[in-house]
Automatic annotation (TrEMBL), chain A:
Entry protein name: Anti-sigma factor antagonist
Alphabetized SUPFAM superfamilies for the sequence: SpoIIaa-like
Molecular function via GO: anti-sigma factor antagonist activity
UniProt family annotation: Belongs to the anti-sigma-factor antagonist family.
PANTHER family attached to this UniProt entry: ANTI-SIGMA FACTOR ANTAGONIST TM_1081-RELATED-RELATED
Taxonomic superkingdom: Bacteria
UniProt xrefs under InterPro entries: Anti-sigma_ant (IPR003658), STAS_dom (IPR002645), STAS_dom_sf (IPR036513)
Domain spans labelled STAS: 2-115
UniProtKB/TrEMBL annotation, chain B:
Pfam families: SpoIIE
Organism this protein belongs to: Marivirga atlantica
Protein name: Serine/threonine-protein phosphatase
UniProt KW Cytoplasm keyword: no
Boundaries of every PPM-type phosphatase domain copy: 473-694
InterPro entries named in the record: Bact_Sigma-Reg, GAF-like_dom_sf, PPM-type-like_dom_sf, PPM-type_phosphatase-like_dom
Keyword Hydrolase in annotation: yes
Keywords carried by this UniProt record: Hydrolase, Membrane, Transmembrane, Transmembrane helix
GO molecular function annotations of the record: phosphatase activity
Domain of life: Bacteria
Native organism taxonomy: Bacteria, Pseudomonadati, Bacteroidota, Cytophagia, Cytophagales
Transmembrane segments: 7-33, 45-64, 76-100, 115-135, 147-167, 173-194, 206-223, 243-267
Length: 117, 695
């Protein structure tokens, strides 16, 4: 089961991912990210993973495939609030070296500010 | 138990013997009477033989006459007719003989006259009994329990009346008439069981009337003959005095007469009945056509034929749109039209007329509603303003909530279609649609079966990509366990002996599952075997592998891998990790297991030269009895019912506790522990475990 919500706050797009992201539900994550990437005037996407219970290799593949897309469009992607277990999955694959991953929303905003300036 | 065949033969034999005994005893009595001497036998003896003769004939025909079935009514009647014909011939011959010898002395001789009368008597009894049994079969066609009981009562009552002749003199005439009247009325009531007539077609009805009339004619002739004998000559035994014979004659003629009348009155309606029967048969044909392995076209043809026949339509066409794949692999639709007594230009004209009637508009409305509602009869039937036709009925063919075509029936009279016709056509069309759907399901099932076979082959091929033998020598021993959730999986492990002292080991896991993962896994194998021979260090190996795979993997796919260079001479392991789960290393002196902590990145995530900077090269030394445990994430992520993962801790402790055992045993303990933990044998991921113990 997966539940994805988006909202905009202070010109920053937020994406809340809740539940399990496996081979079948990763399609929804992909759709949500495509929608955001295609939108106009998107400067930054902050992914709230605090309610993310599990992510499979297919789910990681979705994040991975957007690294280049966001880079070319100059969109900042920051993931925050991951549980230790889920962060460990990112870390083992090495995605922590490529993605900005922070502890919570405040740290994510700080990081964004830091990167943008 | 005596067989039926033997019983029939015995019945014939005894019937003949009884008949001969009857003639002998009767003539003997007559002779004694003429000579005025005491015969030494009473009047009852010939009666006994007559009764026995009748009983054996009865038995014979009961065994011989087959059950009435809708196919053999005419056969049964025909048999009665032929027996009657033979009996008539016998009677005619005797009549001719009497005519020729009318002046001779022979006819003055009572013995001779009685002898001929007995021949007549035997023949008539045979005819009467055979007809009686045939009538019984016809009356009991589609019997119920009450009818069967009534009939048995009648039949046994009649047989019991045979005894009456023994007490002939003891009763008054009114008892005789009373019993006869009783049988007559009972027989009359039973005669109204005429279900078999309904199953005759028009031709058979005429034949039945003819045969039944002949039976009546015979009866008249036979009874008349017997009566003449009784009038002209003095007889020892007069058959017309038997209540049994008279009752049977009465019953047979009444039933024949009623049958003739009922058949006559049924003649005008028989075409309707035949129509209904053919509808049922057509319906059956439609539902069976798929089972017989016929194709869709045959179903369409049967539908069109049955429908036009069922409603007597003047013309009809069936339009089917079929989807197919053209040469370029694009799905296209083509229309197929099956015509019945109609030309193309008439179809175009009729379509325009139907368009005006609003039927097509109604169908389009139903289509928009997804065919959820039942069709309304009055909306699909209409009179049309067309030069050739005056009324129309359109019935769409719906398979899986989609219209695959429509059947159009046309008549040259207005108001040509009614409710019954709508019902029958709609059930024909439904049945045809079910047949088509079944046909498609069957084709699909066969195709799936083929895919399953293909997958089995793929699974076999994939298993053969993994090493069949592992190293077991005096320097190291390896044990592996591999299983996949689907027929094919994305896990991979392999080794390569670089030289006498060096072994390269790889373990990998392709993102995703199933067939696409399996393809990438085989690519990984190709990459491993080409690059391993270059003798690269693990970091360079992974870097080159990443470059090779960058152009092979699709955008969202990646492969995690870990590469180990084991030098058994120097007892050193050189390793690098590309996003794969960190290997577990067991230190035998400290009796502790720990995970390697070096950074890495999955292959295919970064597809340019910068990949190199995310990979670390690490080197460790080992002692004998140390162990290297490689695995894929399926093991770590195996969940129990409450959603808890097996995790790194459990894997680590299981290895530490069981380190004293052989690698083979450790493998078994670990797998057991894992399945116990998951509480189900159903695997939902690929699991790979590779244990290497150093010696």
């Amino acid at each position: 089961m997966i539940n994805i919500e988006t909202y905009k706050e202070e010109q920053i797009d937020y994406l809340i991912v809740e539940g399990d992201v496996d081979a079948s539900s990763s399609i929804h994550l992909d759709e949500a990210l495509t929608k955001l990437a295609d939108g106009d005037d998107i400067k930054a996407i902050l992914v709230d993973g605090s309610k993310l219970d599990y992510i499979s290799s297919a789910g990681l593949g979705v994040f991975m495939s957007y690294i280049d897309v966001f880079k070319s469009k100059d969109i900042q992607l920051i993931i925050f609030g991951l549980s230790n277990k889920v962060f460990n999955v990112f870390q083992i694959l090495g995605l922590d070296q490529l993605l900005n991953i922070t502890k919570d929303k405040e740290a994510a905003k700080e990081k964004l500010h830091e990167v943008q300036s | 138990m005596i067989s039926t065949k033997a019983l029939i033969r015995l019945a014939v034999l005894f019937a003949i013997l009884c008949w001969l005994a009857l003639i002998a005893s009767d003539l003997f009595l007559l002779f004694a009477q003429q000579s005025n001497v005491n015969a030494g036998i009473t009047r009852e003896i010939p009666f006994l033989f007559l009764t026995l003769f009748i009983l054996f004939i009865f038995l014979y025909f009961r065994l011989k006459t087959q059950k009435a079935e809708s196919i053999n009514f005419i056969d049964l009647l025909w048999r009665v007719f032929s027996i009657g014909l033979m009996v008539s011939i016998i009677q005619l011959v005797i009549g001719l003989l009497f005519y020729l010898l009318s002046d001779s002395k022979l006819l003055k001789n009572e013995l001779a006259v009685n002898f001929f009368y007995h021949i007549n008597l035997g023949a008539i009894v045979i005819f009467l009994i055979s007809t009686f049994i045939t009538w019984k079969r016809l009356i009991l066609y589609q019997k119920n329990k009450r009818l069967q009981f009534a009939w048995q009562f009648f039949e046994y009552g009649l047989l019991a009346s045979l005894l009456f002749s023994f007490f002939d003199s003891a009763f008054q005439q009114w008892v005789f008439t009373g019993i006869l009247g009783g049988f007559f009325i009972f027989g009359l009531i039973l005669s109204f069981n005429l279900k078999w007539i309904a199953y005759l077609n028009f031709k058979q009805k005429w034949r039945s009337i003819l045969l039944l009339s002949l039976v009546l004619l015979y009866l008249y002739y036979f009874v008349n003959n017997l009566f003449n004998f009784a009038q002209e000559f003095s007889l020892v035994l007069n058959l017309l005095e038997s209540v049994f014979i008279l009752s049977i004659v009465g019953f047979i003629s009444v039933y024949a007469l009623i049958s003739i009348l009922v058949i006559l009155f049924n003649l005008p309606t028989s075409s309707v009945f035949e129509q209904k029967i053919s509808e049922v048969l057509n319906f059956q044909k439609l539902s069976q056509s798929i089972q017989k392995g016929e194709n869709k076209d045959q179903v369409y043809e049967t539908l069109l034929d049955s429908s036009t026949n069922a409603v007597f339509s003047a013309s009809a066409w069936l339009e089917i749109s079929e989807t197919y794949e053209n040469e370029e692999g694009v799905i296209e639709t083509r229309k197929k039209v099956l015509k019945s007594n109609i030309e193309d230009n008439e179809i175009i004209q009729a379509k325009n007329s139907i368009m005006e009637s609003g039927i097509y508009a109604y169908l389009n409305k139903q289509k928009a509603a997804g065919y959820k509602k039942d069709f309304i009869q009055s909306k699909l039937i209409s009179n049309i303003n067309d030069p050739t036709f005056s009324s129309v009925m359109v019935m769409p063919l719906i398979v899986k909530d989609e219209e695959i075509g429509s059947l159009t029936l046309l008549k040259d009279v207005s108001d040509g279609f009614n409710r019954e016709m709508f019902d029958i056509i709609s059930s024909f069309v439904n049945q045809a649609c079910i047949s088509i759907e079944n046909f498609e399901l069957l084709t699909e099932a066969l195709e799936n079966e083929r895919y399953r076979e293909e997958l089995k082959i793929a699974s076999k091929v994939q298993k053969s990509l993994l090493p069949s033998e592992l190293i077991q020598d005096d320097k190291l021993e390896m044990f592996a366990f591999y299983t996949s959730a689907d027929e094919v999986g994305g896990d991979y492990y392999d080794y390569y002996r670089l030289n006498e002292d060096e072994v390269a080991v790889i373990i990998g896991d392709v993102s995703g599952k199933g067939t696409s993962a399996a393809f990438h896994m085989s690519q990984m194998k190709g990459v491993f075997h080409s690059l391993v021979q270059l003798g690269l260090d693990p970091k360079s190996f992974l870097n080159k592998a990443n470059q090779a795979l960058a152009s092979c993997l699709d955008k969202t796919s990646f492969i995690t891998a870990a590469y180990y260079n084991i030098n058994t001479k120097e007892r050193k392991i050189c390793l690098s990790r590309a996003g794969h789960c960190p290997a577990l290393f067991y230190d035998s002196s400290e009796k502790k297991a720990s995970y390697f902590k070096n950074k890495g990145l999955g292959l295919g995530i970064v597809r340019d030269a910068s990949f190199e900077k995310y990979i670390e090269l690490k080197q460790i030394s080992y002692k004998p009895n140390d162990m290297l445990i490689l695995y894929t994430d399926g093991i770590i992520e195996a969940k129990n019912k409450s959603g808890e993962e097996f995790g790194y801790e459990r894997l680590c402790s299981t290895i530490e506790v069981n380190a004293g055992r052989s690698p083979k045993e450790i493998k078994k303990v670990l797998i057991d522990r894992l399945t116990d933990f998951a509480e189900s044998k159903e695997l939902d991921d690929d699991y790979t475990l590779l244990i290497i113990r150093f010696l």
